[in-house]
Amino acid sequence: MALQRDDWLDVARKVDWEFRYVDEREVYPEVVSGSPWLSHESWKNWEEAYRNTYREYVQNQLVKDDSVFAVRDALGKAKITERLDPAWVQLAKFHNGAIALGEYAACLGELRMARFGRDGAWRTMANLGALDEIRHTQIPLMIGQDLLKFDSRFDWTHKAYHTNEWAMIAARHLFDDMFTAANALDTAIQLTFVFETGFTNLQFIAMAAMADGADDHVFEKMLASIQTDESRHAQQGHPVLRTLIENGGKEYGQYLLDKMWWRSWRIFLALTGTSMDYLTPVHARRQSFKEFMEEWINDQFLKNLEEFGLEKPWFWDQFVEELDHAHHSFQLGLYTYRQTLWFDEPVPSPEERAWLEEKYPGWTETYGSIWDNIEKMWDERGELGTLPYSLPSLCNLCQLPTAFRGPGKNTACTLEHNGRKYLFCSEPCRWIFQQQPERFAEHQSVIDRIFKGDCPTDIYAVLDWMGVEQHGKDLHNGEHPWRQKRAAVSA
Amino acid sequence: MTERSEKKLKTYSMLQTGRRLPSNYELVSSRLHYHYPHNFELSNENPVSKWYYQYRESSPLQAHDWEAFADPRSTTYRGYNELQNDKETVVDGLLREIDESNYDDELAAEWVTFLHRWYGAWRFPVHGLEMISAYVGQMAPVSRITNAGAFQSADEMRRIQRIAYRSAQLNARRGGCEPGEQKAFWEDGEPFQAVRELIERALIAYDWGEAFTVLNLVIKPHLDRLLNEELAGVLAATNGDTMLREIHFSLNEDALWHREWSRELARVAIADTPVNADRFAAWVDEWRPRAVAAVESYVSVFEQAPVRVDANGVFARITAAAEEDVKAALATPVG
């Protein structure tokens, strides 16, 4: 009779032994394995719930891939974007650029855990995680190439991470800090516990639901399928955090949680927040970004923290307050600096504005008036009137424009460190910097590079330096149907 | 859809090579690392950045164009699962047949004891190989090498899990060979100690070029033959355990691919920068004696099997074949 998995899997995963010819500290150096350094004795009970075998893995993944590619083949590589909402197509370009090679960087993080993770069961799980991340790179690369013939800016699916485009520098900075250049222990907590368990639910499940509403079934299938891998390999974080806390590392665990919560929040509001509330067609919006955040992250993830006796991050009140405005402010920044993007940005239509007011009471007063002004500038001065005249200021931690201010409130702040002045979008970004200044201090933001002469100052030369050949524009090229209708009525 | 038709691309701009469209393998595997060389968006003082800059950017093994390497099997993620699922289906069939035919009842008690002592514990050194493959993958300067390292690492997991399954299956039928006890043979059994020393020392060879060379040009050509072809191959069949040979025939297909892509990587590295041949040779010269010592020490067990196989012959076969492998890998490319 065939054996059950539990009859043999432990002896295949618990494969640590006592080193005789080298020291355990040499095999797992603290700089790549993580701090505090603990001997294997502390890690030997490492376990997670999925307990996938290699045999199950290759079989299951084949089935999953088949179902994604069946949708791609059935819908045909042709005409897929022709029936999609134009704003949604921008979302797809934004998402592909930000995600495809970021997933590949996560493959390195998984391989680091597969080598420097401290127990055989952990390393086994991470090894499968590395394969997952290869998958999450290869599927979007294939789908992105299908779309090139409709829009050459899907080139950014592959090229984005190789450019100096400011948003991509922000993404690289975050991911290098989170996993590409992080030790195994930090990677397990930052990537798999905070980012994947806490946040990627939102990106993959919620966006899949919206993709369904937007009729983009290839995108929907891809996201939903990727999420099934994420929820498996995200399990690595729990036992690592548990071991850390059991061995006196609770304070450090809280630090990693707070840091990566804030950093994940920044990237999510910038990518997912603006995508959900401005680039998704109104009829496809299942919930607002804020509602998703409250349901998925605040409710579900907070339960995880209780399990470990961890506190809410210290900046919780600021985070909750930002749910109402940060991505709306950021969206204005994206629109204003749209020439620096590889996708186009819309002005919200009257229907979208009504939806925004319903979901975010007070939106009209705070943000509607600014969009009114942008429309007025289009009326009076055309495109030039709507473009920026100055460089944005960028945060020296998250690398994003310091554009998260709430109504009447600017959260930016500064710090002097070793004779250099640093600017931050917010107290939490400054706090993160201050905890490990040696990790971040040398880095130069795009604006620092411009002032230092490392990149050009002329706007079009800057765009070339960023690799932005086809500049992002107003989605309607300034010909907003509702403005034209208004003009016709008043004439 | 926005109407903007500056120039239509057929593939990604960074992957364009003249008129030819990239193959599917090239499309999904090429130029995926943004951080090589010297391009992490953190201070250079960050310990993991420093680790990369020391062991990857400053490795003696350097090439102008690592992207010239292509996996001879053109392994994509989907292709990998297809291939391995087929192989695993074959092994599932063999393991099922063992159950259904009461195969284990026919094995000699001495052979069962032999396997308990000298076979099951191989999952420990193979886990070392898995770890080092994961290391080579994460340190490689280009993604095509990273992918090969990641898939190879997963192949080693496959081998560990099949050894574990087979050991548990045999114990369930025959008893007295509890896999949980086998670590002691690895840690204390004299014939294993040179293998253990080899693996432990290789785990801390952190220069990525050295790690690749030691793992794939030195250790695996010796140990894969020792385990898959000799112990679980010739010796098993000699002792009437042909099913073990069949299982490891399948596992050895993975090892043959590891050898194949490694040979290709060495060829590309030398064609790009001829002095790399000397660098490979220096690492091979340093490590081969340890690998040879490991084989020499372990083959003594071949004399302990119920039906013996001449240990000297095994030793000679493995070391000669491994030497031929290195010669072929480091041969000066023609043209």
UniProtKB/TrEMBL annotation, chain A:
Taxonomically, the superkingdom here is: Bacteria
Q: What is its EC number?
A: 1.14.13.227
Q: Which UniProt keywords are present, listed alphabetically?
A: Monooxygenase, Oxidoreductase
Which top-level enzyme class is recorded in the Swiss-Prot or TrEMBL entry? oxidoreductase
For this protein, the record's Gene3D superfamilies field holds: Ribonucleotide Reductase, subunit A
Q: What reaction does this enzyme carry out catalytically?
A: propane + NADH + O2 + H(+) = propan-2-ol + NAD(+) + H2O
Domain YHS residues, every copy: 414-443
Query: Could you tell me what this protein is called?
Result: propane 2-monooxygenase
